[in-house]
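Working notes for the structural subgroup meeting. M.R. asked for a predicted model of this chain before we commit to crystallization trials. I am recording the input and output together here so anyone reviewing the notebook later can reproduce the run.

Input as submitted:
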Amino acid sequence: MFSFSGVLHGINSLIFTITCLCLSFLISNISTKNSIVPISNLVPVGCCFLGGAFVPQQLLSETVKSTAIFNPVYWFVNVNEKLNSLSLFNMDTLTPILFEMLIMIAFAIAFLGIGLVIMKQRRTKY
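Returned structure, recorded in token form:
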């Protein structure tokens, strides 16, 4: 019933969910009451277009791909595509995938850290 590929897809989805939660925390600390709705609509849609969730990554230009590496959606889609194409699971094939999962974790830590700093500064300001 469960496959190793399915477990890796689940781990990838969990890491991406945590990254999205940290990004939401950052956005909620940056935005004001009037700007939260446009920002919360613009950021996910923009990230999905740039990251290759709405448009296949093969169709993206090299310029878009070079900016998409600063987007956690790009890494999530990239890991999913690599997992789907794998037939043999060993350390040689899994090392690049695990490295890309670590990149998503780094995004989550960065978003959380920046959000905490902004929250702390807003609390001491008022």
